[in-house]
Amino acid sequence: IAAEQGSYGIIVGGSYADNWSGGAAFNFTGNSHIMVDGATVANIMGGNYKDGQSASFTGNSYITIASGNVTGSIVGATVVTHNANSAYTGSTNIFVYTPLSSNSGPSINSLPGDMVLGGFGWATNTWKTQTLTGNTHVTIDLSAYSGPTADFVKHIVGGGFNGSSGNTQIIDGNVNVMVNLGSQSLAAGRKVVGGAWVNAGTSTVTGSC
Q1: Beta bridge partners of 192
Q2: How far is CA 174 from CA 55, 91, 136, 145, 195, in A?
Q3: What is the C-alpha to C-alpha distance for residues 107 and 161, in angstroms, rounded to an integer?
Q4: Which of 153, 163, 165, 188 could hold 199 in an S-S bridge, CB 3.0 to 4.6 Å?
Q5: Residues β-bridged to residue 180
């Protein structure tokens, strides 16, 4: 998927299925590639989105923000809703080469609209288990950026976001974060987190951060 100009709401690298119950899971096998170069996108996820039938993703995701902006969040793996388990087998790879300077959203339910997440994103109504078997990679490299000065306004998180007391997230692998802001700055209050961002529930990384 290449978004080179214009405005977009949600870009999903894997499958999208807004189903609570009944029917088959929309499993995804293969690699997903998302490139934003000049467009404005609200939210991006490299894996699946919203499948209540516990759909799996098998492959690697690649998200590259060359220029333009993302006003919500970037999620390397799957965004879970509808009380579903989720299995992601593969690595996530996020590359950002331009300052992400807006948090105008909109956000996706309870998933904050101000994050770059290497792992899963929790949105709403899920009290199950999400397992990522592989490594996550988040690279923020503004060393070659030559545009107007702009603060980077996102939290940078190598793992996932968990916001439900009954939800469990597991990364069975390593979490990798590299940040080079060049001559730009991280906005006040923004954080760089090697592991997971946990507002509720549990999150586990078995490898190194």
Answers
A1: 156
A2: 23, 10, 7, 28, 9
A3: 13
A4: 163
A5: 141
